[in-house]
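Quick note —
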Amino acid sequence: MGFKEIKKKKWFNIATNIYVLVLTVFLVWMIFFDTNSLLIHLELKKEIKKLEKQQEFLKSEIAKDRKIIERLSDPKELEKFAREQYYLKKKKEEIYLIEYEDSLKLEQDEQD
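Predicted structure written out below.
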C-alpha cells in the first residue's frame, strides 16, 4: 500500500483537514498543557472534597468543644474535669490511680 493509495482513503482526508488538525491541537493543549487544564481541575476538585470533609470534621469538633465549655461553666463540673484530666487535688489530699490488669501491657504481650 503506497502513499497515493492511503491519500485516497476517507479517514486520511478527514485527519489531514486543517480544521480537524487545529481542533486536535487545541484539545490536547487544553487537556494537558494549559494553566487551567482538565488535569489541574480534577486535582483541585479532589482537594476541595478533602477540605470539605475536613471542614465537617472540624465543625463537629467545635460543637463538642462548645458543649464542654458550657459544661465547664459550672464550678463543680470544672473541678471534676480538672481532677479527672489533670489529676489535680486539694491540699492535704492524696490521689490513687487504680489500673486494672487487663489495661496494663505485660511483658509477655509485647514479646508475642
